[in-house]
Amino acid sequence: MDLEKLAVIKTKLQSEKTRLEEELRQFADQDKHNQENFSAKFPSFGDEIDENAAEVAAYSDNLTLEGTLEKELRDVQNALNLLEKGEYGKCKYCKKDILAERLLARPSSTSCVACKKTLTQEL
Ligand SMILES: [Zn+2]
What we know:
By secondary structure, the protein is mainly alpha-helical. Helix content is 62%, strand content 5%. Bound molecules: zinc ion (ZN).
């Protein structure tokens, strides 16, 4: 892949990382020692029974969202690490180059279209 496309992808990944971290910080505490680890905060709406019930529901939603965003963040960080090492853009299954178009559309992709298709069919 040419350097120009790689630069575009790196910028995309970095802004995606910032976006995900900002989103997570709105409802979760970031681990000081492991920046990829967040813990959803327990919200406080009040002491009434319905307020407590709403807190539990909101907390449960936050946990789900936290899991989704953390996974995305890990994928983005992983892609950035591969870029640093110069190993970015290879399919983790067949080791072939992933199409630049696919990477530009989804920079955290780690598998080529063919392998992804095979995996999806298996599920
Ligand atoms: Zn592949």
